[in-house]
Specification:
single chain; about 240 residues; alpha+beta; D-Maltodextrin-Binding Protein, domain 2; 2 domains; four-stranded mixed beta sheet; three-stranded antiparallel beta sheet; 6 helices; elongated; DNA-binding
């Protein structure tokens, strides 16, 4: 999705640069509040007292395991299927682990990338949103959907005090607005008047009246049938 939004941005605003930066999920809010980014895709919840946010979608939760793990024989996995495994809980993880039934975190690697290395070494398994499993994909690892697991919701967020026109442009692209949409933008009064006048012309409410005594060619009124004041016809 970000690639699609960037492409549309470049089509609509080719002279305005837009740069995407990948950051750990736990640092995104601080970067926004520190002015290091104008907007960001963040994992909910966020501090709504200082950030505006538009929820976009909820990610599927998966478990990352070695390819020869027993759970790979199933299409989906439950927490009970992981009862004999160490579940890794990276420090940069944002999933609500306390809601995962009966599975307290036993290992706390610093990052998701470190946790993936431990999974590859056979130390444990990793429960993450699907996007992170794809981001850290390895040929010797695979993943399966995990039922009854905490979910991670994604939102577009930006500092409430820094809602600029460019931020509004990006919000419009993310929400699928067309290039002609003016939602979220205030138009100058003169432009409003021009648009109202244009609508009136199209609806026929502002037609000009013909001056009295003049008719259009071919009409039944006016002077189109009057010959009395001309010269008399010459008889043959």
């Amino acid at each position: 999705m970000p690639d699609k939004w960037v492409r549309i941005w470049k089509e609509r605003l080719p002279d305005v640069p837009l740069a995407l930066t990948q950051v750990p999920a736990g640092t995104a809010q601080d970067l926004l509040l520190g002015g290091e980014a104008d907007a960001g895709l963040v994992r909910l919840p966020v501090d709504r007292t200082v950030l505006s946010a538009i929820p976009l979608y909820t990610e599927q939760t998966v478990v990352v395991v070695p390819r020869d793990h027993l759970v790979t024989a199933a299409d989906t996995v439950t927490p009970d299927d992981l009862s004999d495994d160490i579940v890794l809980h990276p420090l940069d993880d944002v999933l609500a682990w306390e809601t995962l039934p009966g599975r307290p975190a036993l290992e706390r690697p610093a990052t998701t990338a470190d946790a993936v290395e431990l999974v590859a070494a056979g130390i444990g398994v990793l429960v993450v949103p699907l996007s992170l499993a794809r981001l850290h994909h390895r040929k010797d690892l695979t993943h399966r959907p995990l039922e009854e697991a905490p979910e991670s919701s994604i939102a577009l967020a930006w500092p409430e005090a820094a809602t600029t026109d460019r931020v509004e442009d990006f919000i419009g692209i993310v929400r699928g607005r067309t290039v002609n949409s003016t939602r979220g933008r205030k138009q100058p009064p003169a432009q409003d008047r021009r648009e109202r006048d244009g609508r009136a012309d199209r609806s026929g409410g502002a037609r000009k009246q013909q001056p009295a005594g003049r008719g259009r060619r071919g009409s039944s009124g006016g002077a189109s049938g009057s010959r009395g004041k001309g010269k008399p016809r010459r008889r043959s």
